[in-house]
Design brief:
Layout: H1 5-11, H2 26-39, H3 53-66, H4 68-84, H5 113-119
Length: 120
């Protein structure tokens, strides 16, 4: 998903006030996060047209610590639910217990009485 100015405007009320002497355009910030996620690069490899990588990283960490992304996710989900008219939501899961041999666990050594007698 590419971020657009319409996306930003729909969730702008959730953003904390920018402090300090550095202002970051919110659209550029979200596009930088999308670039990091999509390409799996390090923060230092972020292209310069997004701005200073350290500023983007510090804003990202601050928003994580303050729970801003959780609020944004809840808001976007509620908007999608309102648009699609979803009235009920159900989740289903399956749990399958795997035998230890199926997970690659090492086999136990034979400790039976007949094995001990044969070894003696």
């Amino acid at each position: 998903m590419e971020w657009t100015q319409e996306h930003i405007e729909s969730i702008r009320h959730l953003f904390p006030k920018q402090r300090g002497n550095v202002e970051i355009d919110y659209l550029c910030f979200f596009q930088a996060l999308h670039y990091i996620d999509k390409n799996g690069c390090t923060w230092r490899d972020l292209p310069e047209h997004f701005g200073n990588w350290n500023t983007i990283y510090c804003r990202f960490r601050y928003w994580i610590d303050k729970g801003i992304f959780e609020k944004i996710e809840q808001e976007l989900q509620s908007q999608a639910i309102a648009i699609k008219g979803i009235k009920a939501l159900a989740l289903d899961s399956t749990h399958v217990k795997v035998h230890p041999d199926g997970t690659g666990a090492p086999k136990k050594k034979d400790r039976s009485l007949s094995a001990r007698v044969a070894a003696a």
